What does this fold into?
Amino acid sequence: MAEMVKTPTSLPPSIPAEQSSSAWAPLREPIFRSMWLAAIVSYIGTWMQAVGAGWMMTTLTMSPLMVGLVQAAVALPVFLVILPAGALADLMDRRRLLLITQGWMVLAAGTLGVLTLLHKVGPWTLLGFTFLLGLGAVMNDPAWQAITPELVPQEQHAAAVALNSAGFNVARAIGPALGGMVIAKADSGTAFLLNAVSFFGVILVLYHWRRPAPERIETGALFDAIRGGVRYVRQSSLVRSVLIRTGAFSVGAIALLALLPILARPFGATGYGVLLGCFGVGALAGATILPRLRRRLSVDGLVAAAIVVFAAMTFAAGRISSFGGLCAALATAGAAWIGILACLNTAAQTMCPSWVRARALSMYLLVLQGGMAIGSTMWGALATRVGLPNALLCSALALVAGLATIRKHRLSAQHLAMAPSVVRD
It folds into this structure.
């Protein structure tokens, strides 16, 4: 194993006035702006795909197990291939890998769309193609997140991460509603085909991006690369801290979004879409004010405050009966959500040198998405036993209890200096 490359920290607790930038500053970078806009279109297509798959399964079978397996088919690849995906993103050119994974998803979504329009899709065929799309998305994620530091100047990195998260949440607000309208006027097959088309913007931007040659690309066998990444995580106290903080947040925080369909049931499908939209709008607003908050608060202070706010909104959502009150709670929760994830994502993207970054990010994504998958199941089961308001109360308490991890696992700048670590074969 080659020795580590010393890389300076990229997550200052505050940004000097002369280097400060607005929340929108990364959009002045042409490549980031193009990638960001193309990604939003792709995210909208992904949400349309999710709505189409879930709705189509209910038309094919009323089995609750089969309907539930749609989400399982999306989540399963995270546990199966996220670590090899991170290793591949460090072993090969990330731009080329992204082009391959985007092409894979075009083929999977397009084929499913055509088969659906030809009435050739049954429940297991739908699950199979849903799994293939999830597989492409998981293989894509580590490389996608690892290229963010290459698209913007260092002082704009945190703002870029926040904008990426905000873009995803904007798509979360638009995609389901748009997907519902497409399915109502046409059918799920059309939604699947539109998702396939949505990837072409990202492919076009990646194709024209002239990525600078990296200082170093890790070499070796895939298994050795995975083993080296795991060894790095075990020896790096910083990486462990980021993963522990991420796990403590993800398991507790997902309860609000996982149980939101039940909260929205009295207001119908339209009300559910509006509530998701409020969450997305709140996230966008949070991304706008995040740079100013980071100039006034430490990273740990900002994350702690945002978690307290999110926990309060989670608790309140279980007690509020009015639609307007729920909209306000979801918007506030969205703003807190973006503050937390932006800091965690920035820490994850800057906690390692470039040559091992994708592997570390794959472990971060495994903890983040795996924690949310486990949390969704756990809070759903608890809500069945003790009721929705009490389950959300327990979730809020779990979030607050997770703040105890700050004491030993800080994200402040002095703990994010990436001094070289000794890695032994």
Q: What stands out?
A: The chain has 16 helices and no strands. Residues 15 and 295 are 6 Å apart (CA to CA). The radius of gyration is 21 Å. Confidence is low (pLDDT under 50) at residues 1-20, 413-425.
